[in-house]
Write a structure and sequence with these properties.
With 350 residues, this protein is an alpha+beta fold. It is built from 11 helices and 11 strands. α4 packs across α9. The two termini are 14 Å apart.
Length: 350
């Protein structure tokens, strides 16, 4: 699967994911061929990028949640949150069922704790972001052996973690906080408090879920917000890692980066900003180069990632597309980087 900007399309590409509008209605379904007149219409609708199948590569992508499951859960979460008003919190209790659906879906997958998943950079709204960090945090917690009751509470907290954004005078959606002035930034940093305050007296939500809302931007060295505390509950530390990773690869409140750059950030700041034990577990199941990514090897060959190797997230199975001279490679030249020790990936190609 390849991410393509609309201007890169030439026509007849096959969609690898549904194209969905802001109301989550399918404009073009997965598997449809993109005709030239479709490209013009998509441009008019403000669609900037799409995911298309890489027929040559035949990459095998492994996702935490299937696209149709994620879409259904997102619709549920969006409906619940958009019906919600500050003084009517009881309806938010329905999100507990959504969290349980995500847990059940993850547990249905065979050998879920042994897999390496292809998590890709993408555009996302607040609902998709909440579902993504919910699934990432649940999976991380499962691998860490966290009690199932606490995993449920982590999931609920994740789905509600940014609810404080709904109570702010300024719309911070799609804002890079690095561009905010001092006053705007100070207001933005209050959103965990607004969210926590709105729910702190509710009996239906656990103290752990409330803590996730309050602590999701805290850091182990005290540089986070809003409390600037070093005393962060372990379960909230799980969410800290998942939240910053998903923000970075989606460009939420920051400039968007590639997956390998976000993972390098976590590596660089483990045991400083983030719990090193949690980061190590997260790195273990997240593919550095997701299936479908075009990469450059140390031998100068251009390749595409086909699949992942368990316990070796930086050494996937690749197919060579061009040799070191830039010439197309005939036939299928497959290299498993776990078995071929002298070849490694230098970088991902845009």
């Amino acid at each position: 699967m390849l991410r393509k900007w609309l201007h890169e399309l030439t026509g007849n590409e096959v969609l690898a994911r549904d194209i969905i509008n802001e109301d989550y209605q399918v404009i073009l379904p997965q598997g449809a061929k993109i005709r030239r007149d479709y490209i013009r219409k998509l441009n008019e609708l403000g669609i900037a990028e799409v995911y298309v199948k890489d027929e040559e590569a035949n990459a095998s992508e492994i996702a935490i949640l299937k696209s149709e499951t994620e879409a259904a859960i997102r619709e549920t979460v969006k409906d619940i949150l958009e019906r919600h008003t500050y003084h009517n919190n009881q309806e938010l209790a329905e999100l507990g069922e959504a969290a349980d659906d995500i847990i059940a879906t993850i547990l249905e997958e065979k050998q879920v704790v042994d897999r390496v998943f292809d998590i890709k950079e993408r555009s996302a709204d607040i609902y998709q972001h909440s579902i993504s960090i919910c699934s990432l945090a649940i999976l991380t917690a499962l691998k860490l052996g966290v009690d199932m009751e606490k995993i449920h509470d982590i999931g609920v907290g994740c789905l509600l973690h940014d609810i404080g954004m709904r109570y702010m005078a300024i719309d911070y959606n799609n804002q890079d906080v690095g561009t905010l002035n001092r006053q705007e930034l100070a207001e933005y940093k209050k959103h965990p408090i607004y969210g926590y305050t709105s729910l702190k007296d509710e009996a239906w939500i656990s103290d752990l879920s409330k803590a996730v809302i309050l602590y999701h931007h805290e850091r182990m060295d005290g540089s986070g917000f809003p409390l600037r505390t070093r005393e962060i509950p372990f379960e909230c530390r799980i969410v800290n890692v998942c939240d910053i990773f998903d923000e970075m690869i989606c460009g939420i409140s920051c400039q968007q980066v590639r997956v390998y750059e976000a993972l390098e950030f976590l590596k660089s700041f483990k045991n400083i900003l983030f719990d090193d034990k949690i980061v190590d577990v997260f790195l273990g199941f997240t593919a550095v180069y997701p299936a479908g990514t075009h990469v450059l090897t140390n031998e100068g060959e251009m390749a595409v990632v086909l699949s992942q190797n368990k316990d070796f997230s930086e050494r996937p199975v690749i197919r060579i597309l061009k040799d070191r001279d830039g010439k197309d490679v005939k036939g299928k030249v497959i290299k498993d980087l776990v078995k071929i020790h002298h070849i490694f990936i230098e970088r991902a190609l845009d």
